[in-house]
Request: fold
Amino acid sequence: MEKIYATIITIGDELLIGQVVDTNSAWMAQELNKIGIPVLRRVAVGDLWNEIWDALDEESKKASIILITGGLGPTADDITKPLLCKYFGGNMIMHQPTLDHVTHIFEVILKRPMIERNRKQAEVPDNCKVLKNEKGTAPGMLFQKENKLFVSLPGVPHEMKWLMQQEVLPIIISIFKTNFIEHRTLLTYGIGESFLANRIAITEEALPSHIKLAYLPNYGMVRLRLTSSGTNKALVHSEMEYHFEALKKAVGTYLIADQDLTMEQIVANLLIDTKSTISTAESCTGGYMAHLLTSIPGASAFYKGSIVSYSNEIKEKVLKVPEEILIMQGAVSEATVIKMAEECLQLMNTDYSIAVSGIMGPDGGTNDKPVGTVWIAVAHKNEVKTLLIHLRYNRGRNISLTAMNALNFLRMLIVDNP
Reply:
């Protein structure tokens, strides 16, 4: 079976100057992998005619599916539509169903007058298949040339995703016969990438050449991903299951999840499974842990709230940290976070609590407590455990790592109290 590849071309100067982060191509690549289409390349180009044209030429040499996002707006810098019209030798026409759709959006839903720029959204090349965009005004466009499939989609993420799910992926499945692709991911914590590689070296060497192992380190964790493909779905799955179990065994006690989950998802699942609740008392993280936990759908089932006690005044007045502790031992101390965790547990009436206090930088450190010094406490009923960590990164990374360490520390406490 001929290997079918896709390329994703994202268009926009804002992507190249870093003003907008490209999340579209990452999402599209995940969805394509689910239907057995590997992505050969992801290419970002600016709003330049020659650059876009050259990218189409170059990517279509190796890929059978070329997905394009961006440049479909109503302003002068949006040149994707006229370029595609010329590239495929078409003529621009007014597409009446799209015009009716755009008119309905402006005059009925938004109650705004239609202007000429809005009408031009309904102009399309006469040799494309128009993909109706239920979520916006710019339609998707599908072209075929020399057995290659070209699809142009809006750059607005929720519009692109709707068109991909409702139109593009079903079309790709109907046209191309593909291999089945399976990924299996596990998550480790507390061991560095190089040490982990040494630990699982024998298991890695035993993998067949067609099963690939990837190391994905991030914030104190390392994800290990196995990838395989083939025409026989049952055979691919059976073989992957065998090697994934061997990998889990080799990882040992550093394994914290045998799925591709975030730390906050793992903690949330544990809390839901044990019908437990959590609250947080945050100083140096400034509410970041609350943000992570409440980003999980259904967070109200396990998360009650947070006290962001950034100042000593709040630690003393709200969390009842004694003034003498703050004076003698400081806000960044074991005694402070113990009291923060205990009081948060009582105030919020939760099963568990987390408290953190530290020095995130770039200033504020001393000889005794340099930048990156963090105390963490987790509490459950009459039990409080503490952890001292020393970080060495910039402020943003220190905050993220503090949150990851604190959530993992809570995870261990929950596991120990089933």
